[in-house]
């Protein structure tokens, strides 16, 4: 019996108008600065079926890049239209979506999916109502960012903020009841660090939900992708790829081969 494919979502993280790479949930100030349209089109031309598009400044509470994100979305869809016979390239928008204003900003880009940050758990009434509003749609995913602490185990956090929320098990129990349809899961200690994909946290989440799960952060090698693909039968749907692609640890074409997506 063949193993189902692992969906690949190359990331374009935008800060101050450039594509950059955050490390460990923070902006260190020494990131490589790339043209975000060029970065996104590189992955489209290499065969990506998703682009994970992040407004880091909105996530870190220091402004927005909505106009730049709109340029990337338009360029990706124009390039996809030119690629006769190719599958649609979908856009997942992320970064700081935690309230009505930020959700409206994300939806103005007409994305295929919006990733609501785990910080939205701080306003549970808004989050519950929003999830109910889109209950019959796959438009919303819940970004479950977490960090392991000796005192509390896995705890929900929000990259770019000092916010710390409930434990992951407690958060998942509430989110399952609130109707989350998909999770984007990140061990923030490994994000951008090339330290591995946070399999321990993924195991915890996969054991508690039958919703699709997308891994994010930490992938360093093709061996990491082999490991993640082995988790697909347990409910892992895909993985967001970032730094490993940008520093050339492997090509996107190689990643597609491992993921079974070519």
From TrEMBL:
<keyword id="KW-0413">Isomerase</keyword>
<dbReference type="Pfam" id="PF00977">
    <property type="entry name" value="His_biosynth"/>
</dbReference>
<comment type="similarity">
    <text>Belongs to the HisA/HisF family.</text>
</comment>
<dbReference type="InterPro" id="IPR006062">
    <property type="entry name" value="His_biosynth"/>
</dbReference>
<keyword id="KW-0368">Histidine biosynthesis</keyword>
<protein>
    <recommendedName>
        <fullName>1-(5-phosphoribosyl)-5-[(5-phosphoribosylamino)methylideneamino] imidazole-4-carboxamide isomerase</fullName>
        <ecNumber>5.3.1.16</ecNumber>
    </recommendedName>
</protein>
<comment type="pathway">
    <text>Amino-acid biosynthesis; L-histidine biosynthesis; L-histidine from 5-phospho-alpha-D-ribose 1-diphosphate: step 4/9.</text>
</comment>
<dbReference type="GO" id="GO:0005737">
    <property type="term" value="C:cytoplasm"/>
</dbReference>
<dbReference type="GO" id="GO:0000162">
    <property type="term" value="P:L-tryptophan biosynthetic process"/>
</dbReference>
<dbReference type="InterPro" id="IPR013785">
    <property type="entry name" value="Aldolase_TIM"/>
</dbReference>
<dbReference type="InterPro" id="IPR011060">
    <property type="entry name" value="RibuloseP-bd_barrel"/>
</dbReference>
<dbReference type="InterPro" id="IPR023016">
    <property type="entry name" value="HisA/PriA"/>
</dbReference>
<feature type="active site" description="Proton donor">
    <location>
        <position position="145"/>
    </location>
</feature>
<keyword id="KW-0963">Cytoplasm</keyword>
<dbReference type="InterPro" id="IPR044524">
    <property type="entry name" value="Isoase_HisA-like"/>
</dbReference>
<dbReference type="GO" id="GO:0000105">
    <property type="term" value="P:L-histidine biosynthetic process"/>
</dbReference>
<keyword id="KW-0028">Amino-acid biosynthesis</keyword>
<feature type="active site" description="Proton acceptor">
    <location>
        <position position="13"/>
    </location>
</feature>
<dbReference type="GO" id="GO:0003949">
    <property type="term" value="F:1-(5-phosphoribosyl)-5-[(5-phosphoribosylamino)methylideneamino]imidazole-4-carboxamide isomerase activity"/>
</dbReference>
